Amino acid sequence: MTSLTLVETPALVLDRGVLERNCDRMARRMTDAGVRLRPHLKTAKSARVAEVATRGHFGGITVSTLAEARYFLEQGISDLTYAVGLAAGKLDVVARLQAEGARMKLLTDSLDTLVAAEGKADELDADFSFLIEVDTGGLRGGVPPESGVLLELGRYLHESPRLALAGVLTHAGHSYHCHSPAEIEQVAEDERAGAVRAAQRLRDAGLPCEIVSAGSTPTAIRAKSLEGVTEMRPGVYTFFDLDQMALGVCAIEDIALSVVATVIGHNHAAGRILIDAGGLALSKDLSAAEFLEDAGYGLVCPLDATRPLEGVYVDSVHQEHGLIAAKDGPPPYDKLPVGTRVRILPNHACMTAAAYNSYHVVEDGLEVVDTWDRINGWY
Amino acid sequence: MTSLTLVETPALVLDRGVLERNCDRMARRMTDAGVRLRPHLKTAKSARVAEVATRGHFGGITVSTLAEARYFLEQGISDLTYAVGLAAGKLDVVARLQAEGARMKLLTDSLDTLVAAEGKADELDADFSFLIEVDTGGLRGGVPPESGVLLELGRYLHESPRLALAGVLTHAGHSYHCHSPAEIEQVAEDERAGAVRAAQRLRDAGLPCEIVSAGSTPTAIRAKSLEGVTEMRPGVYTFFDLDQMALGVCAIEDIALSVVATVIGHNHAAGRILIDAGGLALSKDLSAAEFLEDAGYGLVCPLDATRPLEGVYVDSVHQEHGLIAAKDGPPPYDKLPVGTRVRILPNHACMTAAAYNSYHVVEDGLEVVDTWDRINGWY
To answer: Where is the D-serine dehydratase-like domain (chains A, B) (predicted)?
Structure first.
């Protein structure tokens, strides 16, 4: 193959050894907790990563788009939970995927969606299986565990000849904004307890609730108990990033993803080193800034390392330009002459990876040992 | 074709009538100023848009990646300025494009790059033509107009058997952060004067400087004089966006780009309406927030209009979820029931468009009259 010293920049790099360690650790943790791991592939969007992430578990995955569902189905993964609230207009595509062998679980918190779905099911002569989305504090999708509408949705699904009630699903997205391990533990417990409570209320009403699905990377890692939960859906743990590091759920050496860029200029008047990786190559996500003062759009490492140069970060981005600054004083012009390649640790792996169609896979070195594809877009 | 009521969401929509009006206006303005228009296609990345944007001018364009260069060359556009500081490692690709008929201008502010380029030129048996990047206040790439290194770069290029000095180029990116038309006018004059001064110094030193290239959308629109400038390179004016509107260089009806999304839930506890367009579909860019208090990640319009619902905006985004809020009180649940489609006016068109491979082209209505492709990525 080639080497990171030669690939065209900007380039997305994935360290397979780190990926495998991250995945093995999560798989063991979930096995120890007696819970099925249904990794969320929205971060990696790659069949080769799915292969690593499902090892030791049942093989089902979570997806965030129907484009992912189609791609993974083509790669032989058929147990798919589409974990974004359904728009009923997407059911034509879902029905086609099911006809091709997908076993799909859909998500909603809306009776209007179920009514529309039932109409579509008749029209398409198809059956659809739903999870009810429960809000356990994330304030995104979902009905409260104690709400009346939870039971209404459950009954509608159970009584429909075409629709099925598969269980409940929650995502404690607010775990990304916790300021201590103890706070994440509490969010994890709220997530678990809320999902289990919703399931219990459905069961108490005589409704089936086989699946109790929860999880985010922080809660999967910090949860003290997963009692009553049947599956967890973490995703970003496969790669990790500065945001997760800042949250305290990984160490810097667990970050498997980086972007290789080339130094294209020194602007001494501005006190900045310019690289050919900007807002498109790194994303404009600033999640880690909530916790890390000088993370900017990424931390800057030498090409042959994934340890950042002390205090050196991407301070600002334009579409194709990144501007490197240093915490104290001017950036290290002498260490990073024009033409040098650097490696940027991303702020938020899901957003950074989304700009690329493939990964340059390395194994603890500069040699590119493989190229893995990704599936972007929605259809 | 189809209709915006039926396309899979999220979907990128381009209004051709508005695009044509924006392009015609800029083309006339540049003609009136006696300046060549070399539109920057980094926003649109589309051959069909290039066709509209080059009308009435000489046909040359500006690109931000070599993937764009290859794509536009294949579409018959051969006069290409690659307006990102060159990494010499990219010259193999440049040489191939030139061999296939591209007439390329490259950019640098670094002697190290020129030395490397000369080595590459020998190795590849190719000639390369450069513009010297001048910093007229943007504090990104470029050498100061009064600097000694400007003349060093000019001499090196002029004396090299393989390299050529084509002129100077500047981009007043700081025009995006001006707080009044008068301030933009001043930045435009600084941009003009700096570029012209750099050209004059090269000519005074006996060096050729045919091209004096400047421009951003705000400065192209607000400049009182373009005396001495030979070409302008605005880009985002083709589509415009909330950021440009907030800067006062376009009206809301000049925004040609929007994203169609579907309402997937109502979270009354959170006071939010959920749509299936999140951080990937809209981008995480918040440029307009510098000027507009409640622009968030985009303003929300009914599907059949590009006038926003008063005070209704995308307040936050997750990877595939957007959360709609209203300025005063709860969002309009009754106007936007689950399943409704909305149109989002983007914060920053360049970043939003980058997530899509094509445009659904409309003509002042819901009917999709055409599909235009885009070229993303870098290679």
So the answer is: 256-363
Which pair of tokens denotes residue B249?
């260089």
Gap from A83 CA to chain B (nearest CA, Å): 10
**Gap from A54 CA to chain B (nearest CA, Å):** 22
* pLDDT at residue B290 in the model: 84
Residue at a domain's end among B238, B271, B300: B238
- For the stretch A346-376, pLDDT in tens is 999 999 999 999 999 999 899 999 999 999 9
A272–B contact, CB cutoff 8 A: yes
Q: How far apart are CA B68 and CA B70, in angstroms?
A: 5
Return all residues near A365 (Cβ < 8 A) that are at least 6 apart.
none
Rg, Å, chain A Cα set: 22
Are residues B209 and B76 part of one domain? yes
Contact of B267 with chain A, judged by CB distance below 8 Å, is answered with yes
Which residues of chain A lie closer than 8 angstroms to B355, CB-CB?
A: 354, 376-377
Contacts of A144 in chain B (CB under 8 A): 269
Is A265–B108 a contact, with Cβ atoms under 8 angstroms apart? yes
Domain shared by A225 and A286, yes or no? no
Cα distances (angstroms) measured from residue B303 to each of A97, A117, A178: 28, 22, 37
Nearest CB to B264 within list A87, A173, A266:
A87
User: B214, B238, B262: which is the final residue of a domain?
Assistant: B238
Our CA-based measurement puts residue B299 at a distance from the nearest CA of chain A, in whole angstroms, of: 19
Q: Is B67 on the interface with A (CB under 8 A)?
A: no
Nearest to B231 by CA among B220, B239, B240, B218: B220
Same domain, A180 and A298: no
Query: Is B169 domain-assigned?
Result: yes
Kindly report the backbone phi and psi dihedral angles of residue B259, in degrees, each rounded to the nearest multiple of 5, phi listed first: -120, 125
Number of domains in chain B: 2
Same domain, B116 and B194: yes
Q: CA quadruple B17, B22, B23, B28: dihedral positive or negative?
A: positive
Which B residues, 91 through 120, put their C-beta within 8 Å of a C-beta on chain A? 93, 108-110, 112-113, 116
Residue B262 near chain A (CB below 8 Å):
yes
CB nearest to A139's CB, from B89, B267, B320: B267
A316 forms bridges with which residues in the sheet? A323
Whether pLDDT at A246 is above 90? yes
Residue A245 falls inside a structural domain: no
Query: How close does chain B come to A53, measured CA to CA in Å?
Result: 20
CATH assignment of the domain containing A166: 3.20.20.10
Going by C-alpha positions, the residue among B243, B257, B376, B261 that lies closest to residue B317 is B261
Please report whether residue B187 resides in a domain: yes
Could you state, in chain order, the average pLDDT of each consecutive group of 10 residues for chain B (379 residues)? 95 98 98 98 98 98 98 98 98 98 98 98 98 96 97 98 98 93 96 98 98 97 98 98 96 98 96 98 91 92 93 97 96 97 97 97 96 96
Which of B45, B84, B323 to mutate to probe the A interface, most A CBs <10 Å?
A: B84
Query: Which range marks the domain in which residue A312 is found?
Result: 250-373
Residue A351 to residue B116, Cβ atoms within 8 A = no
Give the separation between CA B152 and CA B155, rounded to whole angstroms: 5
Cβ of A321 within 8 Å of Cβ of B280? The answer is no
> What ipTM was assigned to the predicted interfaces of this complex?
0.97
Q: What is the pLDDT of residue B305?
A: 85
